[in-house]
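Researcher: Next entry in the queue.
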Amino acid sequence: MKTKKIIIFMTLIIGLLSIGYVCLAEGSVFFAKDSIIENNPGGINKYTAEISDTIKLQDITVSASEEIADDGSLIFNVKNTSDNSILGSFWYKPWLENRPIYLKLSNGDIILGKEKIYSYKEKKVVPLTEGTGLETVFDYDVSGDNLAIVGKRSSNNAGIEVVIKNLTTGKAKSIDTFKYSGFNYPEVIYLGWSDGKLFYDYFENTPKIKEYSLQNDKSEVYFEGAGEAQVSPDGSKIVFTQINLKDRHDSKIVLSDLKNNQIIATLDGSRKLFWDNDYLIIKNVDQAKLVVYDIKNKGIKAGEYPIEEQPYEVNVTGDGIKVKSYSFKNETIIDTEKEFNK
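Model: Structure for this entry, 342 residues:
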């Protein structure tokens, strides 16, 4: 596949390829050592990156730019496939985020990263937050016509807001607000849809996961002392961090069934995870490995695979897993695709 070389500063790479400290309310801190580069001997030395090129989606083409954003994000350009005209661009860190680089919706729209959306009807790229009043996006999820976003109205404001927008009518409604108290940048806040209910992190006073019902137009607490809620693509399962407020080192990752509200298993790893049908794959950053869990079989461990790279897409195969990832090699940032067999 054709690649482009990108000149970048080492100091930027350290910041952007790491998952750092995430503080929850009352001083509860989680640390994940997700980093391609763990030290900075060169300071301002320049390095190169080789990044795969083009993705064709319906009537648009998405390709990596030759530039790196100031915050270290990759810059993706969006072009009209028919005449090659530029429709817009978006920034994204695929190795760090829990959402894919793009998401195709049933109405033809395509979410790009987590801050832009391509309107199939209008043939243009617009902010994902258009019509919501929000400026910053921490996470999003879509269920039918309902787009849920958790974000801020201003980057200088400590207030967090959860908004639901109807993609057909364009009408948006704020369903909850809170202050992310006692945190270190950046905020890590997730949400996800399941059968007409929206599950989302809520961090004011003590951390908890709340659920909002579209039918009843009400929010209530789903789980006290928990955060980092990630719902499976089919809406049937949820993974979250159960937080021990007295001893943060005793916190654990929980896999639970949303249909019967039963905990399936307690897992090892970080908040970086991947869903693939009946399997859940979690990156254990302390031991540099991907761990595969069989969801249908009580969440038992189905395999472990050592990995030094930063994965951004993982799929389970008959003989193991297929992984797309970023890594740092010979002073170059590269993206690779590998298969790991049992």
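Model: DSSP finds one helix and 31 strands in the chain.
Researcher: Noted, moving on.
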